[in-house]
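Work Package 3 (structural annotation) set out to generate three-dimensional models for the target panel prioritized at the project kickoff. During this period the team completed the workflow that converts sequence records into discrete structure tokens, so that structures can be stored uniformly alongside our sequence database. As a representative example, we reproduce one entry of 127 residues exactly as it appears in the project archive.
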Amino acid sequence: MTHDETSYLPADAIRAGLSGRCPRCGKGALFDGFVAPRVRCERCGLDYGFADAGDGPAVFVIMAIGFFVVGLALWSEVRFAPPLWLHFVLWIPLAAVLCLAALRPFKGVMIALQYRNSARQGEIDSR
């Protein structure tokens, strides 16, 4: 089953990535499991072999969530001075849950942006 590359209007990369949909048609599922990309789209047949987000989404998620959670922890320490055990009980699970919740959408957006911008592996000029 082959499809003409030009027969599909490109999906909105951000919307497709956040919803975990194919970056070309916006209909088929992008992920097989939690964050592993499928081999190809079941709707349009797009080969997801190009999808290599690497550690980029995880780094963005950890930095953003870390900034947010550490800010809340510092604010609560200054404002209320809770015991140390309460910090552990509150902030570690909150950071873990928020990171896991944000990882899949961030990875979907990175893959969709790779497709939209035709991002490829870096190459050294062989002249």
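The first helix runs from residue 13 to 19.
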